[in-house]
Amino acid sequence: MTSILQCMDCERQYRTDTVIYTCDDCGGLLDVVHDLDALRSLVSRELFDSRLGSLDFPYNSGVWRYKELVYPDAPDDLIVSRPEGSTNLYPVPRLAKWAGVGTLYLKHEGENPTGSFKDRGMTGGVTQARILGKHSVACASTGNTSASLAAYAAWANLRGIVLFQNKQVALGKLAQAIAYGATCIRVNADFDKNLALVREISAELDIYVLNSVNPFRLEGQKTIMIEMLQQLRWRVPDWVVCPGGNLGNSSAFGKALRELYDLGLIDRLPRLAIIQAEGANPLYRAYQRGFDRLEPMHAETIATAIKIGSPVNYPKAVRALRWTDGVVEQVSDQEIMEAKALIDGVGIGCEPASGCSLAGIRKLVENGTIKPQETVVGVLTGHVLKDPDATIDYHADRIPNLRAVCPNRPIEAEGTLDDLRRVLSTPIPTAT
User: Fold this and answer.
1) Of 62, 141, 181, 216, which has the fewest beta carbons less than 10 angstroms from its beta carbon?
2) How many angstroms separate the Cα of 26 from the Cα of each of 20, 243, 292, 315, 391?
3) What backbone torsions phi and psi does residue 187 show, to the nearest 5 degrees?
4) pLDDT tens, 380-393?
5) CB neighbours of 11 closer than 8 A, spacing ≥ 6?
6) Which tens digit of pLDDT belongs to each residue from 331-374?
7) pTM of this prediction?
8) What digits encode the pLDDT tens for the residues 148-168?
9) C-alpha distances in angstroms, 328 versus 191, 255, 273?
10) Three-class secondary structure of residue 88 per DSSP
């Protein structure tokens, strides 16, 4: 084997065919550790560039294009792929001007098969479930993970099981899990409690857990960074900015960047900025105290995808921030929804949590952390249709304690040409 599982704290090692999520000795989180010395002679920019546009399985996937850095030992006939990845990196000069930077790109992970970045992790996690011979997979979810698990489980002919909280779940996400045939259980508990329940019941019933505590999930999510750098012709931006909920993405980003640097595929590390909602900001609070400890909290935010008060990947996110000289910032729901409306208004569109990236960039520019001349990549995590109610309610200006900036309200008209002339003769304000 060229890869092992290793505890990030005590460094105890396990075989990759072991069903384990945290270290048996100390409870620490596990990494999938690859033999970088062996890979150094195998991987190159040219290898990955040669696979761009491939029609051949598995390299037609924007995850498995980088198989050597994701799961080099995975048998091709057990890989479960839709395919996923190959998402666009958009230059957005209008939004750059609003945020106060000269060069801004948005990496839109909402363009994955089920509409979020979770598909990148799920292809790795469900592939590992098949390698282990599992028949059922499960997760706790605020929405996106459930949609992705349900789709990939169905594709692999496995039973998918999802635990939701019984309120404030975006209907677009719940609808996906139901449509793809998962067993959907609405529990009178928040995400953090549901995750604990999933881990307990899975151990009892031989079900494979596919939340981001699963290290194979994070290997797939690493490829967001690899693909972004490839799209930039391997030129490293100054900053990568992403939302922070359960902190799987930011953890994966740090691991990807560190491995790429150690392999010599990039010559420096970008700085990482993790943006949290004010009502779900345990990482930000810990950052303000020098990362002395994680204090779980009751999370409340309109950005349901990141409404998590006890992020399981906190230690890995802190490690990523230290590797990259990173920062943590918080933004209000008002700032989140305004940034989302601006992203929507240039024709890209995203779910509320993704608005954290743009809102956070502007805030970091305003406080002098990001310099106006620097190049910034913001990550959008989910599709605009993931939470249509939030979008409609925002533009109708009916979300409590939020004010719609440049709302785009539907206009009522009679079925006559005169009334249409009346409507269309009135200037409509633009979002940017």
Assistant:
1) 181
2) 13, 29, 19, 13, 44
3) -115, 140
4) 999 999 999 999 99
5) none
6) 999 999 999 999 999 999 999 999 999 999 999 999 999 999 99
7) 0.94
8) 999 999 999 999 999 887 666
9) 22, 17, 6
10) coil
